Structure formats: structure tokens, C-alpha cells
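Researcher: I'm preparing a figure for a lab meeting and need a structural model of a single chain. I don't have an experimental structure, so a prediction will have to do for now. The sequence is pasted below. Please return the structure as C-alpha cells so I can convert it later.
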Amino acid sequence: MSQQNEQLHAMRHTAAHVLAAAVQRLYPGVRFGVGPVIDNGFYYDIEFKTPISDNDLKVIQNEMLKIVKEKHEMVREELSIEDAITLFKDKGQDFKVELLEALKTKGTTKINAEDAQDVDLGSNTASIYKTGEFVDLCRGPHVANVSEIKAFKLDKVAGAYWRGDENNPQLTRIYGLAFLTKEDLKAYQTMMEEAKKRDHRKLGKELDLFSFSDLVGPGLPLFSPRGTIVRSELTRFVWELMKPYGYERVMIPHIAKRELYETSGHWDKFQDDIFKVKSDKTDQEFVLKPMNCPHHTQIFASKMRSYRDLPLRYSEVTTVYRDENTGQLQGLTRVRSITQDDAHVFCRLDQVEDEVKAIYEIITKFYTAFEMPLTIRVSAHDESAMDRYLGGLELWESAVGQLKKVLDDLGKEYIVQAGEAAFYGPKIDFVATDAIGREWQLATIQLDFNMPARFELEYIDENNEKQRPVMVHRAILGSVERFMGTLIEHYAGAFPFWLAPEQIRLAPVSDEFTGFANELRTRLLSVDLRAEVDNSKEGVGKKIRNAAMQKTPWTVVIGQKEVDGGDITVKVFGSDEDLIFSQEEFIEKAKESAKLPV
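Model: Understood. Here is the structure written out cell by cell.
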């Protein structure tokens, strides 16, 4: 993290404390949950005696400004866990006590990432910060004085279950924005106004792409025929990019014995997020797969491999399942059923560099097609907390070094972020920037020496000796659901021609011309173009507007001229200029526009 980013993080964290201090002044007796830093700001979860709304934010913000002007220092103190529990019990802060009890009995690995911002990582002590009269449980970091908070604004009020569990009390979550300068804050607010118009949840409903059902359950999206087309075209595009690199398709079941994930290490790390399945016919415990990689290791292990067989590149588009807290679910960007564009490469150590470079090429080709610039970071281990990872420090340093060497050889700029690696290996993360400047971490290349060891995978080398393969995990678009939500907002629902669920809308001037429109549609369908006929009783102007509402790329009015074989006039969505083709040219141009951008 750069020095500027560290300063911004500390400032945002301090702003959360100032928010809580202001609320305590205005609403005595409130109980505080957690107040972490998030992208672009902070929030605090608070239990109020009487509900508040967005209308109350101005008063709270004015009180925050007063506290900032009072120039309180952020004073840190270390307490034993027991003394901290006593302190917060005396203050009636039951949620803080619960966090401390969890820290005392279970350790920090059992406390979720958001809560972990508010407890010290030591198992015997806790740190508190004093902001004037306000005292909070927190590990920091913070700026030295609240006067260093330069540009902030309370944003909105929302409901949030305590610790994201719908069985817990519902708290009021107050969101705030915070930036280093007022100019940065204003630019972000402008971007967010545009983001509201592009919200994939709103556009997904308007464009009939996906829905949710209370009977099916939260976080389990249902994709309409139109939405399914978009998903299928995205995964087809990835496959076409991958094929030249020697990938092969595999298929695995959606459940497995829990022992598979105990062996892989996922069970110990993520058992609280795994769906468990019981059979009436056996005592064995099964799980809905949260990851595909352990299954793929067993395909590799199904027979003895030779060094001549490597690399083996297994690819699959399949759904995994995570028991996410209901309060953390959000449209397509956070769901419980996650369709992964997944692939795993099993290779020799001397093949790692070429395989990582090949995946890098696929990723850059993919995102170039969407005009989404990429920045690169190497997510490495935290040397001071190696108990969070599988494998020793020497192995990790070697793996990180290999990833950095690939990027250095390619001449690419990147940053290294310690502590951001997966538990089984370091990775190269690709951060894509969308049309309005937001950043999304989507694609990744992960190097894994640990899982092959845990599953005792082997191949026979040229000296007829057994060796351990290296496993490379890769995701191009990552979660299909999350990428689709990102893409809807990137394009504001106006997909490029090749990706649009409906590419051409035929609008007959009257019923007299519907027959010809249907014939033309049949011709278009026969060459794999997606076309529909608007045979409603609406006037042609309304039909054109309806097509535009659905953001259909091409709209063609069908009248006597077209029936007589005349030129086709195409109204292009988002353009004031029409395209004019002969009828044969029209189909050829449409076919050309529908080609995948490979």
C-alpha cells in the first residue's frame, strides 16, 4: 500500500470513529457494532433506540464537523482482554463485548474481515482508541488528530444485520465518504450519480436479464432467456480465446465428501461458509462444492502421468456455492451460487513461466475487447503471519519470485501487496477500470505448490523418478454473475452487437408487412443472428422507442420499400446516423458485427 493510500485508509478509519462520537453525543444510549473502512469511505453499524433516516444525516454530519474542529487526538491504549470486556460491559456496549468474547475464545481467524478491523490481532490484549469522550475498540491505524480529516460526507442510511446474520438484531448502517481532497470527493460523487443510472439491479429487471425469487432463496439469481444468452456468449468468448492454448474441457459433480475439502485445506479455513449436505442413505457428510480445484486434482490423480503429458490444462464453467450472510448479498456482485469460469493447469516447474505468460495473454485479449484497462498487482504473503497460509516461508518466497519474474520479463508495471494472497498460494490480480472510472478486481492467476502436495499428486520425470507438479489456478472473467453485473454497468445495459441478447429488432409499419418481417427473421436466425419481430399494434414510432428502451443494437422498419427488395435502413442504438445496406449486404454486415472479438 502506498504512503498516500495508507494515509487515506487511516483518515477513513478515523472518520468512522468521529461519526460514532457524534452519534453518541446526539443519541445517548446507542449501542455500537463495527465501523470499518470500505472502498471510498467508511460505515458504522449502530443500534438506535428510535429509528433514524437519511434526513438525520445533516445533523450528524454537522456534529462531526464540530468534533473535527475540536482537534481531538486519537489516543491508543492497550488493555487485557478481560479489562476490555469489563470496560465495554460498564458502557453497555454488548456488541463490543461479543467481539471480545469471540476473540478470547476462538481467536482472530474466526472473526470476519470487517470485524477484524475493530479488534487487535493479539490473543491476550485488545487496543482501544479515545476520541475526546468517545472510546472504541479498535486496532487502528488512525491519523494522529481528527483535524487531519479533510473531505468527508455522510452518504446514506441502510439496514444491516449484526455481523451479517439475519438471525441477529438489525442495526442501522450509516455510510460515509472520505477523500484526501474536496476535489476528489466531488469527482467521486459525480461518478456515483452516473453509477445510479447504471445500477445492474435496476437495468437487469428493465432489460429482463435476471430475477430473484423468495421461494428460491436470497443470493440465488434466476437468468431469463435474454440473460442466459449474455452468459453463454461471455463463456463462449473465453473458450475461443483459450482453445489455441491447449485447454481441454472437464466436468465435475456439484457435491463431494467433506474429506475432499479437509484434504485441500478449505474445510479448516472456510467451513462456516460451506453448505453441508446429509444423505438419508449414508452417514457420510457431503458438501455443495465451494471450489472446483480439489475436484480437478482428482482428475489428474486418476492415473499416473508422465512428464511428456504435462502441462495438462483443465477448463470448466460450473457453479460453486458459498453460504454468504444474507446481509452481505448484493445483486449479482455477491451471490450464493457462483458460476466460475475456472481452469487449472498442472505443469512442471520449468513450464510455469510459459503457462503464466499464456494466461496473461488470454486475460489482456479478453479485457481489451471490452475496452477495460487493466492494472496489475502481485498479491503476496504476510511474512509476519505465516500461520494464515499453507506451506513454509521459503516456498512462498520462491512462488512470489516466479510471478514477479514473469511480469518483469513482460515489461509490465505492478505493485506488490503483502497479505493479500490466497491461503494456498500467491497470485497476480488484474484490476479492470470500467467506463465511469470504477475499479473491479476480476481476473487472476494463482500459483499453487501446496495443493499438489496435500493431494500427493505425482508424475514420472525423464529419469523415471516421481515428481510433484505445480498447479496454476486461473480465472478470466472470474464469477460469471459478478462480471455480468459489472458489464451491465460498464455498458449501461447497451451491450455490443455480438453480446446483445437481441441483436436486431424488426418493426413492421403495419400488419400487412408482418409476414415479410417474419421471413426476414427466419433468414437471420438461420445464420445465427438473434432477431425479433415487433408484431404489436403500436405505431412504428412507438415500436422504435420500445426497441431503444431494450437497448437493441439495430432496429429495422419494414414497409413496402423493403418488401419490394429495396435497401434496408438500420437505426443504430446510441447513434443519430442510420446505416443503409442492400438486403444481402444487410445480412452480411450483421454477421460480421456478430463475430466474437477474438
